[in-house]
């Protein structure tokens, strides 16, 4: 059973100019514990896809299944991380990370919540910063805390919309490694929206390329790399070839010519 299953989803937004078709026959299947990266042209409907999986929107047609259940409304059992970490300034880092447990597991004793949050903060290198306020941390550290908050309650799926997009290149690469280390320590199912093809290959078990709007599933790349991925793997010929394929697929999605194509 796939953990996330999207079946022939179609959706249009109502706009003043009439319906705007955004998704048209989207199919996606993410097995439990897998990491699915989604790429596609700007404005093709990637964020719309995250809202559908989180149950924040219902599709006009088609079905979204999560952990064997049809998604009919907002779900507590998803974790979300965005480009802007949106941490609450009046709470410490520890209390920000604990927040989902207060909602999902209200009867859990505080000492257990603290232990769970500290375990994650330690894994991402933030132990010692738990009593700081968000504004006292760097952007990369805030995003680390936000990732801890997104998985603290062991969600059915971690949904991320460009979580590393605002970070500088070195911090971003650090966070990629943190993400892989987190997954090795504690496997979770993830759906990542990104514009960065290297990121999609480094983090993904599969990379789904969406077509231009209205988006459908245009291409799926199986990332056949070992689970243990040093950053240097991005400079191998194997990854170079994967990136080449993805770049061509994005060009096709954008309706641009592909070099060497007949
Ligand atoms: N609530 C809404 N009402 C009307 N149109 C919307 C709404 N939300 C998004 N859109 C439009 O739907 C299209 C898809 O939006 P979406 O944010 O899903 O795309 P995206 O692929 O995530 O974009 P980007 O790559 O630029 O982040 C865009 O043209 C957007 O303007």
UniProtKB/TrEMBL annotation:
<dbReference type="GO" id="GO:0005524">
    <property type="term" value="F:ATP binding"/>
</dbReference>
<feature type="domain" description="ABC transporter">
    <location>
        <begin position="4"/>
        <end position="237"/>
    </location>
</feature>
<keyword id="KW-0813">Transport</keyword>
<dbReference type="InterPro" id="IPR050166">
    <property type="entry name" value="ABC_transporter_ATP-bind"/>
</dbReference>
<keyword id="KW-0378">Hydrolase</keyword>
<dbReference type="InterPro" id="IPR017871">
    <property type="entry name" value="ABC_transporter-like_CS"/>
</dbReference>
<keyword id="KW-0067">ATP-binding</keyword>
<dbReference type="InterPro" id="IPR003593">
    <property type="entry name" value="AAA+_ATPase"/>
</dbReference>
<dbReference type="Pfam" id="PF00005">
    <property type="entry name" value="ABC_tran"/>
</dbReference>
<protein>
    <submittedName>
        <fullName>Bicarbonate transport ATP-binding protein CmpD</fullName>
        <ecNumber>3.6.3.-</ecNumber>
    </submittedName>
</protein>
<keyword id="KW-0547">Nucleotide-binding</keyword>
<dbReference type="GO" id="GO:0016887">
    <property type="term" value="F:ATP hydrolysis activity"/>
</dbReference>
<comment type="similarity">
    <text>Belongs to the ABC transporter superfamily.</text>
</comment>
<dbReference type="InterPro" id="IPR003439">
    <property type="entry name" value="ABC_transporter-like_ATP-bd"/>
</dbReference>
<dbReference type="InterPro" id="IPR027417">
    <property type="entry name" value="P-loop_NTPase"/>
</dbReference>
């Amino acid at each position: 059973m796939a953990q996330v299953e999207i079946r022939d989803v179609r959706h249009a937004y109502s706009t003043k100019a009439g319906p705007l078709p955004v998704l048209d026959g989207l199919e996606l299947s993410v097995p439990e514990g897998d990491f699915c990266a989604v790429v596609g042209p700007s404005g093709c409907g990637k964020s719309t896809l995250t809202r559908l999986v989180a149950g924040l929107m219902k599709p006009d047609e088609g079905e979204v299944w999560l952990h064997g259940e049809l998604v009919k409304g907002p779900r507590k059992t998803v974790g979300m991380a965005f480009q802007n970490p949106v941490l609450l300034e009046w709470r410490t880092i520890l209390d920000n990370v604990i927040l989902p447990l207060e909602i999902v597991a209200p009867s859990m004793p505080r000492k257990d919540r603290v232990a769970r949050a500290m375990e994650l903060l330690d894994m991402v290198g933030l132990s010692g910063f738990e009593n700081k306020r968000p504004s006292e941390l760097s952007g990369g550290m805030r995003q680390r805390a936000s990732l801890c908050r997104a998985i603290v309650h062991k969600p059915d799926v971690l949904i991320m919309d460009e979580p590393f997009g605002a970070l500088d290149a070195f911090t971003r690469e650090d966070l990629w490694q943190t993400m892989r280390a987190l997954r090795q320590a504690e496997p979770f199912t993830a759906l990542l929206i990104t514009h960065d093809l290297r990121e999609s290959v480094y983090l993904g078990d599969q990379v789904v390329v969406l077509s231009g709007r209205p988006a459908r599933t245009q291409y799926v790349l199986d990332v056949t790399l070992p689970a243990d991925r040093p950053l240097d793997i991005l400079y191998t010929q194997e990854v170079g070839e994967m990136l080449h394929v993805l770049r061509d697929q994005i060009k096709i999605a954008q309706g641009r010519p592909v070099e060497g194509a007949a």
